[in-house]
Design goal:
Rossmann fold, single chain, alpha/beta
């Protein structure tokens, strides 16, 4: 255990699955897969699949514990009473890997979450050796076959406090930053185009081309707005209910903000070309600023 202090600090962004093979191996594997779907399989460590052949087992365990923000202790019905070949209780063996992993996590301040399976109950302090007695004070979560999806989701939300960044949240973060970038671009281009349109107001026979614009470039702010709205629309199902309304408002505003200026330009460009440009890009700039505020309020937080 002394080796834990020799490594440089690492980001504690993994989840360590602690279990006893002859007590809960099947459950532990299923739980690892379910949590992998939530946080990403590369962030879940379980000794069977997480250690390469020929690798120092003890060193690998120490390294993974140091990288972990939470340790899930899977407790089955035989967890306390499991005995070794000589009949002695495994928890009392100082070289027992299950007990050692838990004690190291407790000593290093890593969040330890007991998960009860089957008809297992939380062990009492007097049933645990001294290094593990603190485990009895941890609030346990029961995971059952009948409510597997609900129970795992509840466990994942508890773990996300210490190990942030679920798969859904990472997708929302990517969508958020791309959408915000597009809206900032939209606002910048719209303000620029608005200023150019104002300067082009005086010359007779103004219009899009006369003002120095290329139609495709002039359409860029509104194309960016549509893409940002599409990203937001796709992210809505994964967003927290309280913030979802802001995302919906941003999508609705994008629809109005792109269709309205387009209709205005189509109807007024022939009679008042320069005025049409001022209104079109002025509206685009205002819509972009309001959308930026709405997307910020939406927050893109996973439900």
């Amino acid at each position: 255990m002394a080796r834990l202090g020799r490594r440089a600090p690492t980001a504690r962004d993994r989840i360590f699955i602690n279990y006893r093979r002859d007590d809960s191996a099947g459950f532990a594997g299923r739980l690892a897969d379910s949590l992998g779907a939530w946080f990403g399989p590369e962030r879940i460590f379980r000794d069977v699949s997480g250690i390469d052949y020929g690798e120092d087992f003890e060193q690998a365990i120490d390294d993974r514990l140091e990288e972990s923000g939470a340790v899930v202790v899977v407790i089955g019905e035989r967890w306390v009473s499991a005995a070794g070949a000589g009949g002695e209780r495994r928890l009392d063996d100082p070289h027992d890997y299950v007990g050692r992993e838990i004690s190291v996590a407790l000593e290093n301040g890593v969040a330890v979450v007991p998960v009860l399976i089957g008809n297992a109950s939380m062990p009492r302090p007097e049933e645990l050796p001294e290094p593990l007695k603190a485990l009895a004070k941890r609030n346990a979560i029961t995971v059952s076959d009948e409510r597997w999806r609900f129970d795992v989701e509840r466990l994942a939300k508890v773990l996300s406090i210490d190990v942030p960044g679920s798969v859904a949240q990472r997708r929302l973060d990517r969508a958020k930053w791309l959408a915000l970038t597009l809206i900032v671009v939209t606002g910048t281009l719209s303000v620029y185009a608005f200023c150019r349109a104002v300067l082009a107001w005086a010359p007779p026979g103004g219009g899009l081309r006369a003002s120095g614009y290329i139609p495709l470039i002039a359409a860029a702010p509104f194309i960016a707005m549509i893409i940002a709205a599409t990203l937001t629309l796709n992210a809505l199902p994964a967003m927290a209910p309280r913030q979802k309304k802001f995302g919906l408002a941003a999508v609705a505003l994008a629809a109005v903000g792109t269709l309205g200026p387009f209709v205005n330009y189509a109807l007024t460009n022939v009679a008042q070309p320069a005025t049409s440009l001022v209104v079109t890009f002025g509206a685009g700039a205002i819509v972009a600023m309001v959308m930026l505020a709405l997307l910020t309020l939406a927050g893109f937080r996973a439900k």
